[in-house]
Amino acid sequence: MDLDELNNPRRRELMRVAGAATLTGIAASAMAVAAPAVAQGPASTSTARNRGAVGARLQGVQHFGVTVQNMDRAFEFYTQVLGGTEIMRDGDFQGDVIHNTLLLTEELEAKRRKVNPRTLGVPDLRGGAQRLDVRFVQFDNVVIELLQYRDSNQPQGSGASFAPPHEHTSPAFPKSMHICFYVRDDVDFNQFIHDLEEESARRGMDNVRANRIVAAGSEQERKQAPLDTLTNRITSGKSDGWSLIYAKGPEGEQLEFVQVRGQAKQVFGDAYETRRRAK
């Protein structure tokens, strides 16, 4: 693919707006992650907005990104196991523009430390030694972007990645992030978690593992825990009605699954309506 084409502003714009259809479905969710887009007003309104608070210039969350070790495996999990729909895929990104856009801060940190940027996990997109591939997956109210950095001689999809995964997987580490999925109100949460692990294992993704609400001394004990220990159900306070469990995805990424009913659903619904009216 031609370098000029990869750095074409229109291509960058396509990536920026991928999944914009999520915004139309957000209002139907009691825990919507974004407010509806504001209709285009007169020039004076636009001018006022551009001079106003930074937060008032947003129209919501566009996507969450996960850098993966194996693109094909991650894509299979998010589409065939969790049921997302592919929006688009693109790849082989390289060159000065994309390198500076994504990696300038890390590169400057390497210079400050007087070390080779590669030792800090900075791939060489500038020179093309490494390339970036992306795939966008649509869910009802959010888009997930899968990213893979690979050496230029590696094939797209299942080729080896540029860097190993983080050694620290605990969500307690600052800068850790997670993706949270809704479970429908009428679904048996415990059975869902059980089937998630079973389906993932059937596909060879044995590292897709959900926590339990009881302690386990071994992986075998975790697996053998009773079905009713797969869900943490909160039954008091403003979070009453919130059910959750943490799980690891196939790339070691931190996932959360929640069911939001009762008081918790009302709290989030009221907050959304308050924000919507304020717009």
TrEMBL record:
Residues 61-189 form the Glyoxalase/fosfomycin resistance/dioxygenase domain. PROSITE patterns: TAT. This is Lactoylglutathione lyase. Keywords: Lyase, Metal-binding, Signal. InterPro entries: Glyas_Bleomycin-R_OHBP_Dase, Glyas_Fos-R_dOase_dom, MMCE/EMCE_epimerase, TAT_signal. It comes from the Bacteria. GO terms for molecular function: lyase activity. Residues 1-34 form the signal peptide.
